[in-house]
């Protein structure tokens, strides 16, 4: 195993303990890259490069005693530190990380109650988001606050369930998963753009941010998953029943949530409520809510045969 | 289901281009959507038509950038 190996003897000696493939302990992976014994860039990275501590003691000492590799390791770690600094400085320009953290401040109780609300919004009375000194309260403390955890998880689960459904019908191939994901994301983007355009044209002064919109529009994936799973278990009848129920629930949920965001501004500003303007805003709310069931059906009907 | 992110990008690009090439003098003025025809009212409510004309003018400005003078001399 050593002779035909092109790498230097120190590296090939280290490869011996891990020659059975897939035997690397996952804890080893994390410990090794963060400890001082890490190798930085270079030839040591790779599937065979992690040794068990007992066997790795002497090859590692022999490796570190070599001054050239010492320098190379120091240079590699400083390069990594510089890169990390650069990313940390610039990441806020492209992705608003601090704003995103608010949407992921959830806990299990919130997720459970919100899922219940998505499937059964008829008994909930108070849909107003609570504020705390001008900033909305974190989702952990207020069930009406939008979050991105449920939509993100639901989207990924939808892709997986779509793959499962395709697999049970012998229609599966890996690129179809990517196609499903891309299609669902494209529809989401189109919805967000259409709603933003409508909000601009109707001069609606609302505190509904883009990320809020993405969160609200992502809640429909939960109903889609339910429908497809029931369709897998009970055939077309189960699919239509559960999908119909989820469609009506999402319709009511969206109307009750968006009404507070889009229509409340007119009353809050003290402007006398004129019929035409509020009517257009009501039409917009209805259109957004009606688009949800349509998209839920469009994105799932081809998965259930 | 051939509706992918790339096709959305293509469609968006074509739409923005279509908005950008609407000619101000030959077309928009004739249908009453010129930029000097509607911005009279400074009332509280701009209205959909004035929002649309503003949007068209903004898209045209952004897409045409600094070369506005050359566009005038080309005269398609």
CA distance, first residue to last residue of chain B: 40 Å
User: Helix count of chain A?
Assistant: 11
Helix content estimate of chain B: 55-70%
User: What is the distance, rounded to the nearest whole angstrom, between the alpha carbons of the first and last residues of chain A?
Assistant: 53 Å
Helix content of chain A: 55-70%
Structural class by SSE content of chain B? mainly alpha
How would the global form of chain B be characterised? Answer: globular
* Uncertain stretches of 5 or more adjacent residues of chain B: none
Protein name (chain B): Immediate early response 3-interacting protein 1
Pfam families (chain B): Yos1
Main location (chain B): membrane
Family (chain B): Belongs to the YOS1 family.
Key features?
heterodimer; A: 305 residues; mainly alpha; two-stranded antiparallel ribbon; 68% helix; globular; B: 76 residues; 59% helix
Note the topology.
The complex is a heterodimer of chains A (305) and B (76).
Chain A: H1 9-15, H2 26-34, H3 53-65, H4 67-94, H5 97-103, H6 108-119, E1 131-132, E2 135-136, H7 149-168, H8 174-201, H9 210-218, H10 220-268, H11 275-300
Antiparallel strand pairs in A: 1-2
Helix pairs in contact in A: 1-3, 6-10, 7-8, 7-9, 7-10, 8-9, 8-11, 10-11
Chain B: H1 5-20, H2 24-28, H3 48-64, H4 68-74
Helix pairs in contact in B: 1-3
